[in-house]
Design goal:
Two copies of one chain form a homodimer. The first copy, chain A, has about 240 residues and is of the alpha/beta class. Chain A is about 35% helix and about 20% strand. In chain A, the strands form two sheets. In chain A, strands 9-1-8-2-7-10-11 form a seven-stranded mixed beta sheet, sandwiched between helices. In chain A, strands 3-6-4-5 form a four-stranded mixed beta sheet.
Chain lengths: ~240, ~240
């Protein structure tokens, strides 16, 4: 039986997905949550507790946890870190538990909790992730975090790149229009990815906030083999 | 002041649009409502009353109106017509008022009522529509009807084709990721449009219902100059 692939362009469309049976959600928040989570595991974080609300993040900070938290792309002053991959150095996080709260990413985790598993996808772990997904023998839903419920280019580009890699394996199939559209988008952008990204609205948002230093890192494929999997409230490395 | 273009991939995302000020909604339901509405005006229908609910359509049928109504692509037995452009022959509709109820199209009209104007867009009127939009001097939101809240290829392809035509005029600008994505999709599909459409999930749905005879007509550009505009509950030809 072929395994299906579906792409959901924003969490707001999650209620209408058609994927059935056992499935894995690949969460994509390329700028920046899922990329940063991969970076944190690459640098030895023990586990990450994602929270959707600022209040909960602040409570855990008061209990002594290390907390990464941002709103609209900006670090909150009471938090230990913002949401940039570059914050999560080995010195700062190796062996530790990190509480993580973001505008889009952790809310998407919250929405996708009904899935069998949720795994963090990014360009930085795309090949290791593909191999891991091939071994899982489940249907796949790629959930783009988007930006405030809206479609965004960077997550959709990743959805196209990952769909293409998965469909190159026998045993995967799709009848999802969003998969085809994201692959067309990836195909258009690939020859000059950074030139194409100049068009992305979110890139300009990040530029405005002086946070666009993570862009080259976020689109560099395969700098890590970590597989951050969310299960029972915690993200751990299954790679 | 440049006019903005935004694409909304499904009515479910309409609440989160960023277009501000006076704007025109271009509604796209290529298979088949907006294409069929253009065909009806090309064949001389006087006006079209769109209704979102089957009950209301049936009441108007009992009052003596001609009614086109379908559910999931199939004509309802009590209706005069289904939703195919080929139903609306000159003999059947010239000079008459038509009540029109569809799964996706009229619901999208209902959602977009807050706009200054709603105009029906399709490949069959794309050039006349572009010229008309250029003359209106308003921001533009292209609203894809989608399929049961989901992204669909055929409406998004049209959004890309129309965005490209509008952006070729000075005075239009966009910072909408969905505009860029739909133009990439259109660029990919254009060299072999019908080959590409084989991928569209909805095409297979129509095939199953034996309704795919309208496909070549629906993607043939510029077979009409009608501009069906919805205002105050009624669609009339502004072309």
């Amino acid at each position: 039986m072929d395994r299906t692939i579906e792409v959901c362009f924003t969490p707001k469309l999650f209620a209408d997905i058609t994927t059935k049976g056992d499935y894995i959600v690949v969460l994509a928040d390329i700028l920046r949550a899922t990329t940063s989570i991969c970076a944190a595991f690459q640098n030895g974080v023990k586990e990450i507790i994602p929270v959707a609300g600022l209040e909960q993040a602040r409570e855990l900070k008061e209990k002594g946890y290390l907390v990464a938290s941002e709103q609209d792309g900006k670090k909150l002053d009471w938090a230990d870190f913002g949401n940039s991959a570059f914050n999560f150095t080995r010195e700062a996080i190796a062996g530790k538990t990190l509480v993580y709260c973001t505008t889009n990413g952790t809310k998407a985790i919250d929405i996708a909790k009904q899935a069998d598993k949720i795994v963090m996808g990014a360009f930085v772990n795309i090949s290791a992730l593909t191999e891991w997904l091939v071994r899982q023998n489940k249907n796949i839903l790629i959930l783009c975090s988007g930006w405030k419920n809206k479609f965004c280019l960077e997550d959709s580009l990743f959805a196209g790149a990952l769909s293409e890699k998965l469909l190159a394996h026998p045993g995967f199939t799709t009848c999802c229009d969003s998969v085809h559209a994201s692959m067309a988008l990836w195909d258009t952008a690939r020859p000059d990815l950074f030139g194409y990204l100049e068009k992305a609205a979110h890139r300009h948002r990040l530029k405005k906030l002086d946070l666009d230093d993570v862009i080259p890192y976020s689109f560099e494929p395969d700098t890590t083999r970590v597989i951050p999997v969310f299960e029972e409230g915690v993200i751990r490395n299954a790679g």
